């Protein structure tokens, strides 16, 4: 609804305790496999478990629109509004709707859903359209940022000078979109500080993506074999090549194996690099695996390693911590929020192969007592990221209530 001077007036929040109708706008969602999609799926499923009517607007896997239908995501039924999407050819799975159609689809979805609140997961396309039309209609908008615009440029084929212009335009548009939201969130305080500095906004709320620790099987104690594990998309910003190079610098007597879990456009390049480095017999590319297989891989690993310099949180790191793994991570962006140097693992200088090899060696040669101490520190550290705390906080934002302490 609007006032007489045409400014939107936000509808009153739903009374405390009444189930809400919530529309989640996500530019990436199942069957995509990445941190942003996984968060949106777990959020939606958790809200369904709490009795809310959850709808999700996301790209379809083909250029056709699907009628609203029920899909079971993370074991919970929710209403999906799949929009016609095209494949971004430089990327191995990314699909998007045409930007000039985003507001048209937003109107149609909002007409069908009539939500109490809209929660967008990015400012890119679907979220951009939903934010603008919801604001026109006086529907409260909550915006969560999982995106570093710089990462998008990894998948372009444009000259560097064009990328710089696109980057500025992307962040300028992000500010315009986030200015329409009642609240802006991002997974960590460091990520919130980054966003506030980058687009000059205030009051970004840090809310962990959260995980359900009951889904993991921590095993305290030394492993039978030294195994490094990485879980995530095999894309340029993950810098898995740094880990492969560090593997060559480890003492051969440690007999270290490296498990790489996930798919992505860099897989073939990384396979070739492993061969060039002569470590192909000590590296296994598992590709995408089931949840049960992933839990098993975590349970047998000795240490989780992540060399990424673009993590706004890292769900995979939290999963590893919930599996009682020490972590060796790059000292960049939000990873220091999870990896406390000398406590549950070590931080290394981003891109420094020798430093990474040294920190991995410290974990792999730790005494049983020291290794178990790091394992317990991971379990203790991940406790604050429980999914129920995340859901409590988002429910308070949806209802415009005081946030839980």
How does this model look, in words?
By secondary structure, the protein is an alpha/beta fold. The chain has two domains: 21-210 and 386-399, Glycogen Phosphorylase B (Rossmann fold), CATH 3.40.50.2000; 213-384, Glycogen Phosphorylase B (Rossmann fold, 3-Layer(aba) Sandwich), CATH 3.40.50.2000. It contains 14 helices and 16 strands. An eight-stranded mixed β-sheet has the order 3-4-2-1-7-8-9-10. α10 packs across α13. The chain is globular. Residues 1-15 have low confidence and may be disordered.
Q: Would you summarize the structure shown here?
A:
The protein has 405 residues and is of the alpha/beta class. The protein contains 14 helices and 16 strands.
Write the layout of secondary structure elements.
Blueprint: E1 21-25, H1 35-49, E2 53-59, E3 69-73, E4 76-83, E5 86-87, E6 95-96, H2 102-113, E7 117-120, H3 126-136, E8 141-144, H4 149-152, H5 160-178, E9 183-186, H6 189-199, E10 205-206, E11 227-231, H7 240-247, E12 257-261, H8 267-277, E13 283-287, H9 291-300, E14 303-306, H10 315-322, E15 327-330, H11 335-338, E16 345-348, H12 353-364, H13 368-382, H14 387-399
Parallel strand pairs: 1-2, 1-7, 2-4, 7-8, 8-9, 9-10, 11-12, 11-14, 12-13, 14-15, 15-16
Antiparallel strand pairs: 3-4, 5-6
Helix pairs in contact: 1-14, 2-3, 7-8, 7-12, 10-13
- Give the biggest sheet: 8 strands, mixed
- The percentage of residues in β strands lies in 15-25%
Low-confidence stretches: 1-15
Give the CATH level 1 class of the largest domain: Alpha Beta
Q: Treating each run of at least 4 consecutive H or I residues as one helix, how many helices?
A: 14
CATH superfamily placement of the largest domain: Glycogen Phosphorylase B
Compute the gyration radius: what is it? 22 Å
Tally of structural domains: 2
Structure classification: alpha/beta
CATH topology of the largest domain: Rossmann fold
Helix content estimate: 25-40%
User: Total strand count, please?
Assistant: 16
The H-and-E topology, N to C, reads as: EHEEEEEHEHEHHEHEEHEHEHEHEHEHHH
CATH architecture group name of the largest domain = 3-Layer(aba) Sandwich
Mean model confidence by pLDDT: 90
State the shape.
globular
Give the distance, in angstroms, between the N- and C-terminal Cα atoms: 33 Å
The neighbouring-strand order within the major sheet is 3-4-2-1-7-8-9-10
Domain Glycosyl transferase family: 223-377
GO molecular function: glycosyltransferase activity
Protein name: D-inositol 3-phosphate glycosyltransferase
Keywords: Glycosyltransferase, Transferase
